[in-house]
Amino acid sequence: MVRVSGPEAGRIADRMLKLKGNAHLSEQKRGMWYGTLIHPETKSDLDECVALWMPGPHSYTAEDVVEFQVHGGLQLVQSVLSAALMAGARLAEPGEFTKRAFLNGRIDLSQAEAVIDLIRAKTELASRSALQLVKGDFSESIRRMRQTLIRLQAHVEVTIDYPEHDVESVACARVIETGQELLTEIQELIRRGKMGRVLREGIRTVILGRPNVGKSSLMNALLRQDRAIVTDIPGTTRDVIEEYANIGGIPFRILDTAGIRDTEDIVEKLGVERSREALREAEFVIVVLNSNEPLSLEDEELLLQTEGLPRVIVLNKSDLERRIDGVEPLAGDSAVVELSLKAGRGLEELEHEMVLRATAGGVQMDDASYMTNARQNTLLQGVVDDLELAVEAAAAGATLDIIAVQLQSAYAGLGQVIGEEAGEDLLNEIFSNFCLGK
C-alpha cells in the first residue's frame, strides 16, 4: 500500500490513476475505486489497483488521503512510490501521518504515543492495552480530571476575589475533599502505568546455572522453538542469547547465559563475565540446578547472589534420581519447581510461578487498561505532588493564593500528558521513534 496525505493528495492521485471513463478520483465520493496506475509523465501502465479515497476531515490524518493498494513485490511498490513522488508528493518523515493526525486535532498526544505501543506490542494483552489508549479512554479520563480541577480552581478564585460570598474555610474543605479524590484516581493511573512498562518493554529475565544443567533446553521450551544450541558438552553457550517469550500474556525478555564456573578457556571466561553482567541488570531470575547431582559450591553461590531478587529455582532433570539436597533452606520465599523437559513435567507450573512472582501477583486486564509511558507517568507524579501540596496547604489553613498556584500547576501538568501544552522539541522526540508510513 502507498499512502498520500495532504491538500494535494487528490491532485496527485488524478495524475497517476486512470479510472473508467477518464473520471478524476478527486471529484468522486468517499469510497473504494478500481483503476490503473500510470506513470505521470510517460503515461505507461504500472499496475492495476484499488484506490481508497478519503476526503478530509474524515481520514486518519484529518486531511485528504488516498491509499493505493497494489500487487505485492518490492520493485512494483517502489515504482508506484516513485510515480507518486514524480506527481508531486514527498517522502513522509517517521511518524508523520500520526503527527499530522495530532496536529490536526484528530487525536491527542497520548493517543499518538499509543500508536507506536500498538505496533510494537509483543503480546495480546499489550496490544489490547495499547488499543485502549488509541481509542481515547485514557485521554477522556485526563480531560474529566482537568474539568474537575478547573471548577475547583474557579471556586477558589471566586472566594479570593469576592470573599463576601464565601468563607475561606469552605473553599479549603472543598480543596481537601476534591483533591484527595483526584489523588486517589491519579495514583491508580500511576500504578497501572508501572504494569504498562512491563507490557511494553518486557521483564528482563536471566536464566542462570552451572554448565550443562539445562539452561538452553529450558529457554527453548519457554520459547516453543529451538533457539539455543543444546548438547551434552558443558560450556556450549559462550554468549548471552536473548529472545522474547509470551507467558501468560506477559512478555518475558529471556536471556540464556553461559554456565557460570571457573574456567581457563578465554572465550568461555568472557561468556561467564557477560552472564554476571546480565545478572546485575536482571529484573527476574531463573536459577537452574541439576536435581541429579548434589548441591555444589557454585550452586550455593548462585543462590546467595540472587537472594532478594524475584526468582524461581528450577530443579531440572527430575525424571532422574534426586540427589540434590539443601535447596529449600537457601530458597527463602522463592518458588522451587521440579522440572523434567524430557518427561514433559513442570513447565506449566514454572510458567505460572514466573507470572505470579515477576508481576507480584499476576496481571488482570483492568491493571493494564492504561499502558502509560515514562513521560506520562513523570507528569502524573508531578500532578500528584502539586495536589498533595494544595491539600496540605488547605488543611493547614494557608492563604488561598498559595492553593490556587498549586491547582493551576496540576491543571497544566494534566494538559501536558495529553499534549495540550507540548513544545516542538517534545513532538519531534516522540515522533522520531515511529517507523516510516505510520
UniProtKB/TrEMBL annotation:
It comes from Alicyclobacillus ferrooxydans. Residues 202-359 form the TrmE-type G domain. GO terms for biological process: tRNA methylation; tRNA wobble uridine modification. SUPFAM superfamilies: P-loop containing nucleoside triphosphate hydrolases (SSF52540), TrmE connector domain (SSF116878). One of its GO terms (cellular component) is cytosol. This is tRNA modification GTPase MnmE. Its main location: cytoplasm. It is found in: Cytoplasm. GO terms for molecular function: GTP binding; GTPase activity; metal ion binding. Homodimer. Heterotetramer of two MnmE and two MnmG subunits. It holds the Pfam family TrmE_N. PANTHER family: TRNA MODIFICATION GTPASE GTPBP3, TRNA MODIFICATION GTPASE GTPBP3, MITOCHONDRIAL. Its EC number is 3.6.-.-. (6S)-5-formyl-5,6,7,8-tetrahydrofolate binds at K18, E67, R106, K438. GTP binds at residues 212-217, 231-237, 256-259. InterPro entries: G_TrmE, GTP-bd, GTP-bd_TrmE_N, GTPase_MnmE, MnmE_dom2, MnmE_helical, P-loop_NTPase, Small_GTP-bd. Its cofactor is K(+). Exhibits a very high intrinsic GTPase hydrolysis rate. Involved in the addition of a carboxymethylaminomethyl (cmnm) group at the wobble position (U34) of certain tRNAs, forming tRNA-cmnm(5)s(2)U34.
